[in-house]
Design goal:
By secondary structure, the protein is mainly α. Helix content is about 45%, strand content about 5%. The longest helix is centred in the C-terminal third of the chain and has 11 residues.
Length: about 140
């Protein structure tokens, strides 16, 4: 919980920018984004190959899971492949935080253009989970 005003805090960091903006030290443009996203295997390998850089750049961060991958990818050869439209997940924030899908949502989910959905809870409705697994298990990869 802050104990100073937002203006005071912003002024403080603006005056002391060199001490706190670690992205300048690494010549990276700092980015942020969702924790839920989809990446390719090549992108995963790139991220893992830069784990020491990530540790050094974000070791003093309060919420690196919303910054470190986004920053690394934005400042890489993968930048042009970033999609800002969707995380490829069907998430309903209007009916919950997020809403827990139930069996009556099955048709809606199957017609969705997204590849994944969040959130399910087997304690609330195992039938939706079983029905989706049954529908997708017939697809041979």
């Amino acid at each position: 919980m802050p104990i100073k005003t937002q203006n005071y805090i912003h002024d403080y960091f603006n005056k002391n920018k060199g001490n706190y903006d670690r992205s300048e030290k690494f010549n990276y443009e700092l980015k942020k984004g969702q924790q839920w996203f989809s990446i390719t295997n090549y992108c995963v390998k790139y991220i893992l190959s830069n784990k020491n850089l990530i540790r050094e750049m974000f070791k003093y961060s309060a919420c690196p899971d919303e910054h470190f991958i986004q920053t690394l990818i934005y400042n890489s050869k993968f930048k042009n492949n970033i999609s800002y439209d969707t995380c490829l997940r069907e998430i309903d924030w209007n009916r919950g935080c997020p809403y827990v899908f139930k069996l009556e949502d099955y048709d809606f989910l199957m017609k969705s253009e997204n590849l994944f959905a969040r959130k399910f809870d087997s304690n609330q409705d195992r039938n939706i989970i079983n029905k989706i697994y049954q529908a997708i298990s017939t697809d041979i990869i």
